């Protein structure tokens, strides 16, 4: 048996989407990335002048540790090829899309404390070019979260739908069981480690270095995130951490923004991902034996019920499941490996192909426009008044999610038909951010508060915080803050995220009953 056996990993759990020819060696290469990084490429050449150092074990370990801290994209050609293999699967572009979305979430959280980024072009007479639809997507965090959820639904459904359509229910059952068992480990073990690190830094007093900065509207002029508090005793601090981790498993609550607020408010999506994953597994199980048309009909009924209850999060997971099956029906994953960035397919000149190309490009533009929906003030914003008036009155909470969620589904659907968009997301940069996307999501909050605030204050104390000097200082600070966050995410990816996937597989294999 292959595919979703206990010894295989779902695409979502590996942090990348599956290739059609997903061989066992490919899986081992992806999973053993961190272990291989501990041995330095061509280390003998680097250390040959240091014979005396090599004879001292602790110094060798120190050098290896220092090399491990070097960003993966600077560790030589072999490492770069592991980040982005020469041969990409037909769904690799979705991994790149997720990576860019993760980067945009970070930009949102970096910018929104200093600028009003939730409003769109024309609101209250503000015609700043950076707030124009499409342009503002670079810091549209809520829209990026919608894209996350569509891709998560797609990735988690990818192999189950494949087995359903091939009537291989034995592998389907084994695989779904494995995915459901490992899902909590995949989501919460890295999260537990990242928040554990936060608590350690809090107890060491590191967060006190930037606490004053974090509370002053002189620097953070728009919003201020909660700074982790130093509790009176270590016991209280660790009890708080334990309660926060336990709170993340609230599968019986549909409330948003629960669980991790005291340590890292950005992690509210992790419990949501967990809940929606479990409900998606249940939906896959319930519809596995149905004919395709009845599976789509059942999915539509569930989606309508979800829509009527304003559950945009689970609706996006269901949309990802529907897109997977649609892609299988139209043969999107049997045409061969994806083209790397910069390479082009042979041009087709038929009128039908040209019409389809124009149509799907227009659909992609529509999706991007809907993703650009403002977070606030849509009824007073040019270009959005009519669309916001169409939002149902019963969609009372987070109305801005309505069109952003719609846009995420439309855009992902369109990109599946557009080779040039896929090449963009298959580029080295996009694929790199796809690999570190989960680590970037976990690391950007704490690193920004410990390192980013420090750099930003240092620069603003030089440039000043009035008028254009404020923006100049912000931009200069970004040259230090952004690389710091990316570096931390890169290290966390290799040190924690990849080993977590390997551990989840090992742990499951240890518990499997041998008949």
Radius of gyration over alpha carbons? Answer: 24 Å
Structural class: mainly alpha
The tally of strands reads 0
* Distance, first to last CA: 15 Å
Query: What does the main sheet amount to?
Result: none
Query: Total domains, how many?
Result: 1
Describe the protein's architecture and organization.
By secondary structure, the protein is mostly helical. It has one domain. 62% of the residues lie in helices and 0% in strands. It has helices spanning 24-31, 33-37, 43-47, 51-54, 57-68, 77-83, 92-111, 141-165, 169-203, 211-214, 234-247, 269-287, 292-308, 312-329, 351-371, 385-389, 400-415, 419-425, 428-435, 437-463, 468-511. The radius of gyration is 24 Å and the shape is globular.
Would you spell out the secondary-structure blueprint of this structure?
Elements: H1 24-31, H2 33-37, H3 43-47, H4 51-54, H5 57-68, H6 77-83, H7 92-111, H8 141-165, H9 169-203, H10 211-214, H11 234-247, H12 269-287, H13 292-308, H14 312-329, H15 351-371, H16 385-389, H17 400-415, H18 419-425, H19 428-435, H20 437-463, H21 468-511
Helix pairs in contact: 7-8, 7-18, 7-19, 7-20, 8-9, 8-12, 8-14, 8-17, 9-11, 9-12, 9-20, 9-21, 12-14, 13-14, 14-17, 15-17, 20-21
Brief summary:
The chain has 515 residues and is mostly helical.
Give me some keywords for this one.
about 525 residues; mainly alpha; about 60% helix; disordered N terminus
